[in-house]
Design goal:
Layout: H1 6-10, H2 14-27, H3 35-44, H4 51-59
Helix pairs in contact: 2-4
């Protein structure tokens, strides 16, 4: 799987996966392959995420 978040990879749409894929690779490269760690990492970097990835987290109540 690519570097999307756990929520995007398991319950999200393809567009949600792609929305966070670049952010995951940019900010959370060391965690790629561990969905839970990537999701936690992205949440910690939330202020720096792209607007499209922020919307994915918001749409899932995060």
């Amino acid at each position: 799987m690519s570097g999307g978040t756990a929520l995007a990879q398991h319950s999200g749409t393809k567009s949600e996966q792609s929305a966070c894929s670049r952010d995951a690779q940019r900010f959370c490269r060391k965690d790629l392959g561990n969905d839970g760690a990537v999701q936690n990492c992205l949440q910690m970097k939330r202020a720096s995420l792209s607007s499209s990835c922020k919307k994915v987290f918001e749409s899932h109540g995060m």
